[in-house]
Amino acid sequence: MKNMTTAQKTAFYGILSALALLLSVLENSLIPDIPFLPPGAKIGLSNIITMLTASLSGFSGAMYITLLKGLFAFITRGATACIMSLSGGVLSTVVLCLVLKFRKDKLSFVGVGVLCACFHNLGQLAAASVISGTAMLLNYGKYLLIFAVITGTVTGLCLNILMPRIRAALRT
Questions:
Q1: Prediction pTM value
Q2: Secondary structure, 3-state, 40-103
Q3: Distance of CA 68 to CAs 17, 54, 61, 150, 170, Å?
């Protein structure tokens, strides 16, 4: 990333943005809601791109992807979807970048994925509780914690597979 020209960085962020939005669209349209989880609970495949971006370019790039995903949620699904996207996304992106900066050698991408999924769910539960005016939604936390371990493992494994190939491609 350091040796890229401005045009190359723009193209790179454009490709990452397109991939994040494509994964979001595919996940929202092809994977049905899971019955015992709150409506809209998803695997978070687009978070692979956020973790990838944070690994390659740091906080500003990852936050750009996160904010773009929130804007996309607003345009395609409305204000509530935007708030839910941003509340989980911003919190998990901050945690992601802190972990990569200070504990990168201590956690694999699977560990980072699980941690980020947990904080993403925490942010969304907090937002849902504020929007609904009830703390009762926090009862979903125990289910979402289990789901976060599963989904964070999936996204982390995907990144474990992809990252060596992406790093090799960027060196050429």
A1: 0.87
A2: CCCCCCHHHHHHHHHHHHCHHHHHHHHHHHHHHHHHHHCHHHHHHHHHHHHHHHHHHHHHHHHC
A3: 7, 14, 11, 25, 23
Question: How many CB atoms within 10 Å of residue 164?
Answer: 9
Rounded to 5 degrees, φ, ψ at 107 are: -130, 140
> Are 119 and 85 a contacting pair, CB within 8 Å?
no
pLDDT tens-digit readout, 109-126: 999 999 999 999 999 999
Which structure tokens are listed for 129? 């509780």
Q: What burial letters (b/e) apply to 140-151, b meaning 16+ CB within 10 Å?
A: beeebeebbeeb
Place of tokens 């939604």: 137
What is the C-alpha to C-alpha distance for residues 95 and 18, in angstroms, rounded to an integer? 23
Q: Model confidence over 126-155: pLDDT tens digits?
A: 999 999 998 888 888 888 888 899 999 999
Largest CA distance in the chain: 53
Q: How far apart are CA 117 and CA 138, in angstroms?
A: 16
Residues in the chain: 172
Give 89's contacts (C-beta < 8 A, 6+ positions apart).
50, 66, 67, 69, 70, 120, 123
Task: Tell me the C-alpha to C-alpha distance, in Å, between residue 106 and each of 47, 90, 159.
Answer: 20, 23, 16
